[in-house]
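Before relying on records like the one below, remember that each one covers exactly one chain. Contacts with other chains, cofactors or solvent are not represented anywhere in the record.
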Amino acid sequence: MPRRSPETLRSRRWFGPADLRSFGHRSRLKQAGIDPADLAGRPVIAIVNTWSELNPCHLHFRQRAEEVKRGVLLAGGFPVEIPALSVGETFMKPTSMLYRNLLAMEAEELLRANPVDGAVLLGGCDKTLPALIMGALSAGLPAIALPAGPMLRGNWGGRTLGSGSDAWKYWDELRAGNIRQDDWEQIEGGIARSNGTCMTMGTASTMAAVAEVLGLTLAGASSVPAADSAHPRLATATGRRIVELVWNDVSARSLATAAAFDNAVTTAIALGGSTNVVVHLLAMAGRAGVALDLARFDAIARRTPVLANLRPTGQYLMEDFHYAGGLRAFLTRIADLLDLSCRTVEERSLGEAIAGAAVTNEQVILPRERPLQAEGGLAVLRGNLAPDGAVIKHAAMDQRFLRHSGPAVVFKDYDDLAARIDDPALEVTPDSVLVLQNAGPLGGPGMPEWGMLPIPRKLVQAGVRDMLRISDARMSGTSYGACVLHVAPESYIGGPLALVETGDRIALDVPARRLALDVSEAQLAERRAAWKPPEPHYRRGFGLLHSQQVTQANLGCDFAFLAGTAPTPEPEIH
């Protein structure tokens, strides 16, 4: 591909012409203290920064942006930092997922509306990387992602703590009376010890790995700990690289091929990654014009072993994974399952990117002959309870629930769950199936991470640590347990989940990929006729837009009007 000339840079449309409009643009550069001559012949690089003081995963991005700028300047580009919505997992309510599409839309429009030639995407916390990539794919410009990196491992009295996973674990121990309140407070102070994302193989780490295997980060970028000095060096190298991508006119969309998405699904499953990767990859593929569906996830899962011994599926944490060789070394273990000819932002093949990488700890990155699970840890279920599909992370649950049948205990929404789950009078046994309704994309709203329903206190106190749970919600990538998620269509719009009543028998068969409600069609028809839709959550604002446009989980929960690759015209400069 021939190298672009400075005259073809997109930003030149704003600053180059000798007319009144460009006079105004250049004069405003001077107002900002910038000599327009400093831009002459240089690509303008947007650093899309999701830094926020209310997003502790991203607190180091203020400094990383400066380090990216250094790389851009060293490579002959001109960096401009642009703030974007910081979709933080820990504080945003009702759920950060409600705002993923808002960030995706903002990223797309920021890149389209401004005089930039390429972008560095600073994201990490669960929804930020998929949202930024969705926006960059739609904008069609050269782009490269810089993942935030995982935080340091947690510590409590010499015990290693993992984000989320150990919070759920020790919360149950507190509820059971096995640890004291002061133990719980010490765990609270020791589980998150630095900037960076969750250090388990949760959603953030899964999506960072997905970004890398899609070819949208530098090789090895996905697991560098946020606190490691390699991370600022990575930021500078990323800044250098985007300038070359602009000169060579390599867009993010040109790298995000069908084969690259198959690689991403394979990698996420082999890592024992978050179930949230399903909705994010479906949405990202839609923006790239790639046909990806739940059936493809299941087909790939059936051939892919789980080889990452990482919590919540396994034992170790992201620091261990990185120093065991990271994703490059990990991919050498599944190379035969990947299309190694796919191109990356380094303008070489994936095979070239992982060449020479070596696993240095086989307890963390397992060999093929000793997998954590022989068949991928994620399964897609169908049946009369989920005609459009549901997912389960069966690698991270008590294996006795692979085939299970039991009576439903139904909660009509999260408030009902919170009010009754610990009631001593609740009629529930370890074989019961907990069912949560109205927690999906519309019902939540925003499909909150409520899918790891708490086990009733009286069962926790009796030693129960897992039971079958079903909902149209998501769950945190750091969660575990026999949780059927993403049931589609959701109950809020009258999907079969809305018709389940306490006492109905539900059967799960993971090997057969079946989820069945043992109620006759005649009974279901009678219940359907009596069902009334809930009151809408929103009557104005972004919430109303979300309720009008969001798709179901099996389609990726993107906005219908944003999906696809229909061209959007470049802005007129006049």
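The chain has three domains: 42-152+194-354, 155-189, 379-537.
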